[in-house]
Amino acid sequence: MEQDVISIIEAKYIGGYSIDMKFSDNTTTTVNFEPFLMRSKDPQINKYLDKGKFKKFLIVDGNLNWNHNNLTFPIEQLHEGKI
């Protein structure tokens, strides 16, 4: 039996570094990206601590995407709310 691929169908910035996502399986998850961003030592990731840049995500091919794949996360992790 083929497993359905889960994708993000809606995403909404809700404040701080949190994004609420609705998935194709009708589940919703809110992910707080702040701990990940704060832990990173990579300047290409740290620049998203600027909330103006952080808020500029798009849904591309069912996944969150910042600046043309500059920052993305595995869909499974987003679905579980663990990054």
Structure summarized in a few sentences:
The protein has one domain: NE0471-like N-terminal domain (NE0471 N-terminal domain-like, 2-Layer Sandwich), CATH 3.30.2020. It contains four helices and five strands; from the N terminus they run βββαααββα. It has helices spanning 34-39, 43-46, 51-54, 75-80, and strands at 8-15, 18-23, 28-32, 57-60, 63-66.
Question: Strands, helices and their partners?
Answer:
Layout: E1 8-15, E2 18-23, E3 28-32, H1 34-39, H2 43-46, H3 51-54, E4 57-60, E5 63-66, H4 75-80
Antiparallel strand pairs: 1-2, 2-3, 4-5
Write up this protein.
- With 83 residues, this protein is an alpha+beta fold.
- The protein has one domain (8-80): NE0471-like N-terminal domain (NE0471 N-terminal domain-like, 2-Layer Sandwich), CATH 3.30.2020.
- The chain contains four helices and five strands.
- It has helices at 34-39, 43-46, 51-54, 75-80; strands at residues 8-15, 18-23, 28-32, 57-60, 63-66.
- The chain has a three-stranded antiparallel beta sheet.
**In which order are the strands of the major sheet placed?**
1-2-3
CATH class: Alpha Beta
- Architecture, according to CATH? 2-Layer Sandwich
Q: Structural class, from helix and strand content?
A: alpha+beta
Features:
NE0471 N-terminal domain-like; 83 residues; alpha+beta; 5 strands; single chain; two-stranded antiparallel sheet; three-stranded antiparallel β-sheet; 4 helices
